[in-house]
Write a structure and sequence with these properties.
single chain; about 425 residues; alpha/beta; Four Helix Bundle (Hemerythrin (Met), subunit A); 2 domains; 5-stranded mixed β-sheet; 4-stranded mixed β-sheet; 11 helices
């Protein structure tokens, strides 16, 4: 059984239209990092402007002829949990109890294992020692590989995490019974309720300045909540029997959501509709890049919970497709990625495209804002937790539900 709470929650501080509190500081830092080359602690002088971004060159914020290396948490000197190695010719090795990044024997950065939680390798030409692989596996440090286009390619999964037979047996069995249908409905309901809540969040300070957009967002939120209730009322004995009806309702909600969100965007950018693969405009490109970052966090949470990333319920099975990861991403898209991207645009942070890809400075601005969001605390089960902890806990609660230890799975629904 899956439950989704749809009542209005308490208002949060600030919104995407006016930077307040932490949002202001983050916006300033992101703007500085995208406009001022070399501001990162591991970034050298600016590269030539004709180096294509996303294809292994230095891009904005990197040295001429030298690849860029930057920690995802470079703005937070107290907890550098994520290390990004981006650029050809870099070597990631082990030195004592640290990971060390070098180029031509020159040490560029060291990351203590004690603080590290995630290693992200981007693009071709990065070398990694077997010692690093074994250390990451031993210490439970996630290691993901992305292509030049930032598409997930591979992940390091410690062999001990696969020894979760009971959980995985129940996960696969649930696909063919009522649990699978309930989970498919739940993932979709969580997504739709969060869409409605984010629209209200974005519109709450626009009553006077943008009355038509304000009213449109309120109407859109009501329509989406109605579609969420329809999803919850769908009958079906298993995931297969409810999937198509869910996708139909989800598609209708998506059209309403993106239309209303576009009207709330303050930045003067061209954005006609939502586009995934092949997007060339700044808004869709930024959203797509943010989802890829979220994807790696959710995948790690799924694996650590002992679940099979490929055994989903809402997304159809396909060889190599991590359907369960895609299922769980749905309930976090709006409150993690969409909220951050809309805030960046509304606060005047420029997202620039070169040769069809976001520049490195633009990608870094997105990474910084998402890092702030994932580290920021949110109400959850009566307490406040960092969003990254909420993601992990949701995966664990799903595993517990499948093992019969919890009677229901409740998708995450954010406050607005």
């Amino acid at each position: 059984m899956v439950k989704v709470e749809t009542e209005t929650a308490e208002s949060a501080q600030g919104d995407g239209s006016s930077a307040t509190g932490d949002d202001t500081a983050t916006a300033r830092a992101a703007t500085a990092s995208s406009d001022t080359p070399g501001t990162a602690t591991t970034t050298a002088a600016p590269a030539s402007s004709d180096t294509p971004s996303g294809h292994g060159g230095a891009g904005a914020g990197g040295a001429r002829g030298r690849p860029r290396l930057v920690s995802l948490l470079e703005m937070d000197t107290s907890a550098k949990r994520v290390l990004v190695v981006d650029g050809p010719g870099l070597y990631l090795g082990k030195h004592s109890e640290r990971l060390r990044v070098t180029q031509h024997k020159e040490v560029l950065q060291e990351a203590p294992l004690l603080d590290l939680e995630h290693v992200l390798i981007v693009g071709r030409g990065v070398s990694v020692s077997s010692d690093v692989l074994m250390l990451c596996a031993e210490h439970g440090i996630a290691l993901d590989v992305l292509s030049d286009r930032e598409e997930p390619q591979a992940s390091l999964i410690p062999s001990t995490l696969g020894a979760t037979v009971r959980t995985r047996r129940q996960q696969l069995a649930a696909f063919g019974d009522a649990r699978g249908a309930a989970l498919a409905r739940g993932f979709a309901q969580g997504k739709l309720v969060n869409q409605a809540r984010l629209l209200r969040y974005l519109a709450k300070n626009r009553r006077e300045s943008m009355p038509r957009a304000y009213q449109g967002a309120g109407s859109a939120a009501l329509l989406i909540e109605g579609l969420a209730r329809q999803v919850g009322a769908l009958g079906g004995a298993n995931a297969d029997e409810v999937r198509q009806d869910i996708l139909t309702l989800e598609g209708r909600a998506g059209e309403i959501y993106w239309h209303a969100a576009r009207n709330l965007l303050l930045a003067p950018v061209e954005w006609e509709h939502r586009e995934t693969r092949g997007a060339q405009d700044p808004v869709n490109s930024a959203l797509n890049y943010g989802y890829k970052i979220l994807y790696t966090h959710v995948q790690r949470a799924v694996v650590l919970a002992g679940l099979d990333p490929h055994g989903g319920y809402l997304h159809v099975d396909r060889p190599g497709k991590p359907s369960l990861v895609l299922d769980m991403v749905e309930e976090f898209r709006q409150m993690v990625v969409d909220r951050c991207i809309f805030a960046l645009f509304n606060q005047g942070v420029r997202m620039e495209i070169e040769d069809g890809w976001l520049t490195q400075a633009s990608r870094r601005a997105i990474v910084d804002r998402l890092r702030e969001r994932l580290e920021g605390s949110e109400p959850y089960e009566g307490k406040r937790h960092a969003m990254r902890i909420i993601v992990q806990n949701q995966a664990r609660r799903l595993a517990s539900h499948l093992r019969g230890e919890r009677p229901e799975y409740r998708p995450y629904v954010g406050r607005w």
